[in-house]
Amino acid sequence: TIPELVKLQDKFADDLAIIGVNFEQPSGGGGMASYEETKTLLDQFLQQQPINYTCVLGTREIAMQIPEFGAFPTLVFVGRDGEVKLMLNGYQPGPMLNAIVTSLLDDTTVE
User: Fold this and answer.
1) Distance of alpha carbon 71 from alpha carbon 62, whole angstroms
2) Helix axes 94-106, 2-11, angle to 10 degrees
3) Which end of the chain is more exposed for a tag (fewer CB within 10 A), N or C?
4) How high is the pLDDT of residue 111?
C-alpha cells in the first residue's frame, strides 16, 4: 500500500494529508522490541524509503481510538470536519483508493 499512498499524496498534495500509523512490533531474541527500539527501526526504514507522508509509531492507546480496528492496513478517511467518512481494512488497490479520495474531495459535505 505504501506506493499507492505515495502516489495519492503526490496527486492530492494540497487537499490530502496522509498519516501512516505503524503498529509493527518486531521481536528480538528475547521477545518483543521496546517502543524505543521499534521507533529506531521505523526511523531507519523511513530514511531508506521514499515516503512523502507522515509516519508515526502507534501505541495501544491510539489503536483503541480507531473505530472497529481489525486488520493491517486499516485506512481511515477523515473529512475536513474531523469526522470519519470511511474506513477500510486490508489492502486496497491504487485505482480504488484514487476513486475514493477523488469522491470524498468532490463531496461538498466533506468540509
Assistant:
1) 14
2) 30
3) C
4) 46
